[in-house]
Amino acid sequence: MIDLPLIWAFLIATAILIYVLLDGFDLGIGILFPFLRRDQDRDVAMNTVAPVWDGNETWLILGGGGLFATFPLAYSILMPALYAPVIAMLIALIFRGVAFEFRWRSENHRGHWDFAFTAGSMVAAFCQGIALGAFVQGIHVEGRAYAGGWWDWLTPFSLLTGVALVVGYALLGSTWLVMKTEGTLRKQAVRYATITGVGTVLFIGLISGATLSLDPRFMEIWFSYPAVLYTAPVPIAVMAAALWLWRSLKKGADYKPFLAAVTLFVLSFIGLGISLFPHIVPLKVTIWEAAAPDKSLGFLLVGTVVLLPIILGYTAYAYWIFRGKVKQGEGYH
Predict the structure, then answer these.
(1) Are 57 and 19 in contact (CB under 8 A)?
(2) Is 143 left (phi over 0), alpha (psi -120 to 50) or beta?
(3) C-alpha angle 280/209/223, rounded to 5°?
(4) Would you call the peptide bond into 233 cis, given omega within 30 degrees of 0 as the criterion?
(5) What is the CATH number of domain 4-321?
(6) Is residue 225 exposed (0-12), middle (13-18) or buried (19+ Cβ within 10 Å)?
(7) Tens digit of pLDDT for each residue in 251-289?
(8) Spatial contact of 282 and 273, defined as CB atoms under 8 Å apart
């Protein structure tokens, strides 16, 4: 018999991961914006993501909408717990999107729109990190409903994950610029990628240790025998990816730093999955307990099987068409 809740949990997790990777690097461009010295460099940086940035957010809709449709119990618990950071994130994304378009047309107020672009990117990334931290640290559930307070999401752990995701997105953005630009802008990007790469690896270690201290069950999941035989390769692979990032930056590679940064995020996501599976509300509600009826899941899966290849196809086509370096004076706008 087909395990539809498990299939949908995998699809939603994949959509969230793709969103983090794709929207992560263009949010990272916004985070790095104040550190780019010249207006020309900012124009080039923005032009590297102009053709694809709005399509990247498709995956956020798929992840959020999919959660509502396929795991309504989890949605009804998680959203009240995370309303504040989620709403702040959405408002920040709106400001960022408006600023993206207006800065090209309103030259007299370009500085204001640059600030809105940077602030929107930073706030969106920070709120996503806070939501992740609040999710991982656990949500107070009684019966089948959220029983916590309005400010439960605001903790030292969630603030730590918020800062960590800002640094991680800056790493994705800087390695994207390494891949897509040349000259002085690329040199700046290499320097920022080195700094944010070190910061990202340190935060991965720090948050991993902090997560293990949240609940004794996390320690058991990672270090009990024989589970440790399957979990040990993940931190080893993280160290290997960090070394790959460092060496590729030192050797002046174009694509490898970005692929190494993506690998760090994928491995971190795998580690998160190991810690939480099979729970969709951490250590409280499993994916099977939260799932919609099988008939609903099957109906939605049919539509997804049709639409998902289309989304993947046009996304891949857009990246292929706009591949290569972006030079000063050239771009989507």
Answers:
(1) yes
(2) left
(3) 75
(4) no
(5) 1.20.1630
(6) exposed
(7) 988 899 999 999 999 999 999 999 998 989 888 889 999
(8) no
